[in-house]
Input
Amino acid sequence: MAATNGSIFGAMLQEFDGAARILNLEPGIWKILTHPKRQITVSCPIQMDNGEIEVFTGYRVQYNITLGPAKGGIRYHPGVTLDEVTALAAWMTWKCAVAHIPFGGGKGGVICDPTKMSKREIEALTRRYVAEIVDAIGPEKDVPAPDVNTNAQIMAWVMDTYSMHVGHTTTSVVTGKPVELGGSLGRREATGRGLMIATRESARHVGFDIKGATVAIQGFGNVGSVSADLLMREAGAIIVGVVDWKGGVFNAKGLDVPKLIEYAQQHHTVDGFPGADPLNCENLFKLDVDVLIPAALENQITMDNAPAIRAKVIIEGANGPTTPDANRHLHDRGVFIVPDILANSSGVTTSYFEWVQDRYGYFWTEKEVNERLEAKMCEAFGAVLQTSLKYKVDMRTAAYIVAINRVAIVTRMRGMYA
Output
């Protein structure tokens, strides 16, 4: 699949190419790892509440399954494209490899605006989408999960629809489910907890104390809010600025994160939170803070705003929030960036824990889940940091080197099926 100008997949290929050259990756393996294994496009007709029929387009991409079943979320958004889903599936491939878990990379999406749909319409769309891709997913084939605008309830519908088709309850077909349906304790907080761990380890490496360190966060959904809470409560950091889809707030002495979370749940935004000054996204990136956490959507840090960024450390909570040019610029300025495929790999790591528990039929305590996540995240961070120091490259390139090498080794071992 060729890269195109402005393509998200093209941006992924740029990141891949730099690491592959350092590894002296042979041309054949290079070709295999830069082409998606399977791209599925489906039409999903459903009857809306007003009686009219609408047809929604859905995608499921299985980028690489060398290490195990494809793994990746399903997003509902008006801006979903096949290019985006393919890039995200590729990033999932590298993310699972960096995390050292036995999954390949997948991703799904449906072009829709769930904010304008009723619960019944969303359920109908989910079930029809799953029915259209049912032959391609399964515990040993492809294991979906929540993503943008999808949640545990939607994953419950995914599990139920799949189970109806195969004739028996199969909880391990999907992760991010309600705990009552085989979900894992600690899963909801996992990505935010992983960002906290990555921030703590980065501070230790860069040389500042995480206790009392200042943090600014773009995005205050599940990932942003949980990371803010854990950074404050467990690491002692000070959250000074937060922005979301509508607006933002700033307090140099630190925001009251529990109250901010409560306010955001009631008002669906942090905008207008009392006891803080208004803040927009442009000015969030300009804040003189120790840590910046972009936890919103792709392509948020570009050459338009990267020169103004003053943070010592950037922890990528979102997928692909930094463009390649901006990444190079910031690295050259000495900013320590923990890339998405490492920083937010804790989400898929705990999804792996959920999948294991479902297949085993035995569930862990939240303390056990968090302890295992801590060990996996520290292992992954250490491997990438050592690779970065060995090859004298930035953390993003190092993460790709680790991931590509792990997938390439197994690709060679498995050989070519013809």
In short: Residues 1-5 have pLDDT under 50 and may be disordered. The first helix runs from residue 8 to 22. Residues 188-343 form a domain with the Rossmann fold fold (CATH 3.40.50.720).
